[in-house]
Amino acid sequence: MNDALSAAPVSILVLCSANQCRSPMAAALLSRRLGALPIPVAVRSAGLLQEGEPPSPTAISALVPYGLDISGHRSRRVTVADLTWADLVLGMAREHVRHAVVTAPDTWPRAFTLKELVRRGEEIGPAKPGEPLADWLDRVHEGRERAALLGDSLVDDVSDPMGGPPRAYADTAALLDELTGRLAGLCWGLSADRLPGER
User: Fold this and answer.
1) What is the dihedral of CA 189, 192, 193, 197, to 10 degrees?
2) Phi then psi for 63, rounded to 5 degrees?
3) What is the pLDDT of residues 31-43, one digit of tens each?
């Protein structure tokens, strides 16, 4: 690990629609990645819909190969307090970033889809040694336009596997594992390879 973004605690909020599949999966994978850091990292997830619902059983099964158990998770509806708390807001799709920015406009410079943040981050390069997360996000954010949040995007959205076959959930888990690994490398210099014990 290098010293990029390694000095300060970090709060990350992951958003999807129902908070029963993509966001709890991504939050669990990212938490595991960032558990290697010598700083406090808090990763929460929330959604736009109902509260108190368990994850999809197929989503739970999709994370078993990664040594992760999200069966105890219950869905939460995102609040302004959640968005204010977060140093970084990661939507699974543009609609989730749109909701965050409409709900709490100040989140705009630090709210991205996971795919967008990885894509733009790889374009500008990883965080510099000792660079605060907010400063790196400012550089990644430069040149973004709010109009880019409109509609859906194959480039920026992680498709929702809810209601699909088990293979769709497994593919989503693999994609989220890859993306969170790349993000961990960009921000904190962690290896994007699979973690020990993963099959």
Assistant:
1) 90
2) -95, -5
3) 999 988 888 899 9
What residue has token string 């959205």?
Answer: 157
In whole angstroms, give the CA distance from residue 34 to residue 68. Answer: 14
- Domain annotation for the chain: domains and CATH numbers: 10-188 (3.40.50.2300)
Strand 41-46: give its sheet, edge to edge.
Answer: 41-46, 10-15, 88-91, 111-113
Helix, strand, or coil here: 160?
coil
- For the record, the structure tokens of 33 come out as 């990645």
Q: CA–CA distance from 145 to each of 34, 49, 148 (Å)? A: 29, 26, 6
Q: How far apart are CA 25 and CA 163, in angstroms?
A: 16
- Tell me the pTM: 0.91
| Alpha carbon distances (Å) from 190 to 21, 92, 119, 157, 184 | 25, 22, 17, 24, 5
Answer for the pair 33, 190: CB distance below 8 angstroms, yes or no.
yes
Q: What are phi and psi of 167, to 5 degrees?
A: -60, -35
